């Protein structure tokens, strides 16, 4: 498993306010496959919290723009989703660990259609 630190570059809230698009700039770029998850870790109130999220950006965006996106549903309780959508600041660092899971058979990837929408 590979680990890098990333800093929040920007956060966009969806028009409905139910999800946020969070954009990070990792210290180290990496490659990933469609359908792969990335474990996000952060220290929240002195406790290390971690949660896997599906990577929303493309591998090309990460390689060319040095940025990676995640779509995170807003949550009212304390935890990673709340931190990423409501409490994080642009100076805060998180830790990314990958690869985590892969739900696509790479031999048949041409048979998949990926749809990303804002709720």
Commentary on this structure:
This protein starts with a strand and ends in a 17-residue tail after the last strand. The protein has 2 helices and 6 strands, in the order ββββαβαβ. It is globular, with a radius of gyration of 14 Å. A 6-stranded antiparallel beta sheet has the order 4-3-6-1-2-5. The longest helix has 8 residues, at 80-87. Strand 3 (36-44) and strand 4 (47-54) form a beta hairpin. It is mostly beta strands.
Helix content: 10-25%
Q: Order of strands in the sheet with the most strands?
A: 4-3-6-1-2-5
Distance between the termini: 32 Å
Strand count, sense and barrel status of the largest sheet are: 6 strands, antiparallel
Order of helices and strands: EEEEHEHE
What oligomeric assembly is this protein in? single chain
Low-confidence stretches: none
Task: Find the structural class using helix and strand composition.
Answer: mainly beta
Concise structural overview:
The protein has 119 residues and is mainly beta. Helices cover 13% and strands 45% of the residues. Strands 4-3-6-1-2-5 form a 6-stranded antiparallel sheet.
Annotate the secondary structure layout:
Elements (H helix, E strand, L loop, with lengths): L1 E12 L5 E8 L9 E9 L2 E8 L4 H7 L2 E6 L6 H8 L5 E10 L17
Antiparallel strand pairs: 1-2, 1-6, 2-5, 3-4, 3-6
């Amino acid at each position: 498993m590979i680990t890098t630190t990333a800093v929040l570059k920007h956060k966009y809230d969806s028009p409905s306010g139910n999800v946020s698009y969070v954009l990070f700039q990792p210290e180290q770029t990496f490659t990933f496959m469609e359908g792969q998850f990335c474990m996000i870790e952060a220290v929240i109130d002195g406790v290390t919290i971690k949660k896997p999220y599906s990577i929303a950006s493309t591998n090309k965006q990460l390689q060319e723009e040095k940025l990676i996106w995640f779509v995170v549903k807003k949550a009212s309780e304390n935890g990673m989703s709340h931190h990423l959508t409501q409490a994080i600041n642009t100076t805060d660092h998180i830790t990314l660990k990958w690869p985590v899971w892969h739900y696509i058979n790479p031999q048949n990837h041409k048979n998949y259609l990926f749809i990303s929408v804002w709720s």
